[in-house]
Amino acid sequence: MAAAKKASTKAPKEKKSTDAKTQTFKDFVITKKRSGRFEVKTAKGKQVNGLDKARVLVDAKLVQAGFPKDKADAGSEGASGETPTT
């Protein structure tokens, strides 16, 4: 005779969060993932990407970055970096 399987009474395991660190900064929620990347969302839950994301992370002092200069500033310094020949 074959033994009947008992129904499992264990609760299903909860999935562990992949987020390593979450913090709130100004109107943003910043999450550092296990991969080392950062996720930035607004208070309403909308994703922030690109230059806006980089500025939020720099303001939070989580990363160090250099930003491109404004075109008005770059023109006054001489963009080519060469000395003029006469």
Pick out its properties:
21% strand; 3 strands; 3-stranded antiparallel beta sheet; alpha+beta; single chain; 86 residues
Structure description:
- With 86 residues, the protein is of the alpha+beta class.
- The chain is 20% helix and 21% strand.
- The protein has a domain at 19-65.
Short overview:
Helices cover 20% and strands 21% of the residues.
Write the layout of secondary structure elements.
Elements (H helix, E strand, L loop, with lengths): L18 E7 L2 E6 L4 E5 L7 H10 L11 H7 L9
Antiparallel strand pairs: 1-2, 2-3
User: Structural class, from secondary structure content?
Assistant: alpha+beta
Describe the main β-sheet briefly.
Answer: 3 strands, antiparallel
State the assembly state of the protein chains: single chain
Order of helices and strands: EEEHH
Rg, nearest Å: 25 Å
With strands numbered from the N-terminus, the spatial order across the biggest sheet is: 1-2-3
The number of distinct β-strands equals 3
Fraction in beta strands: 15-25%
Number of helices: 2
| C-alpha end-to-end distance | 104 Å
Model regions low in confidence, pLDDT < 50 over at least 5 residues: none
Instruction: Let me know the average pLDDT.
Output: 76
Principal-axis shape equals elongated
Helix share bin: 10-25%
